[in-house]
């Protein structure tokens, strides 16, 4: 969870209620990503079931799990 530790250091100066909301959102996104992977679903398959574009699923993942894993 290196990315969260790095990100959480940038939360200084943000109200506690906002920090809690960010933490909870990150927790939920992590659970959703893990479950999608457990089910063997691709981002494209999840997007189709959710009525979204695959790029929307990717943006969520990148936002909460850091860009570094996905750079080539």
TrEMBL record:
Residues 32-57 form the HTH cro/C1-type domain. GO terms for molecular function: DNA binding. It comes from the Bacteria. InterPro entries: Cro/C1-type_HTH (IPR001387), Lambda_DNA-bd_dom_sf (IPR010982). Gene3D superfamilies: lambda repressor-like DNA-binding domains. This is Helix-turn-helix domain-containing protein. It comes from Paenibacillus lemnae.
């Amino acid at each position: 969870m290196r990315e969260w530790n790095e990100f959480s250091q940038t939360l200084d100066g943000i109200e506690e209620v906002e920090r809690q909301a960010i933490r909870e959102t990150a927790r939920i996104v992590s659970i959703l990503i893990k479950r999608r992977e457990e089910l063997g679903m691709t981002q494209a398959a999840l997007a189709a079931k959710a009525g979204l574009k695959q790029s929307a699923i990717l943006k969520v993942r990148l936002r909460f799990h850091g860009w570094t894993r996905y750079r080539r």
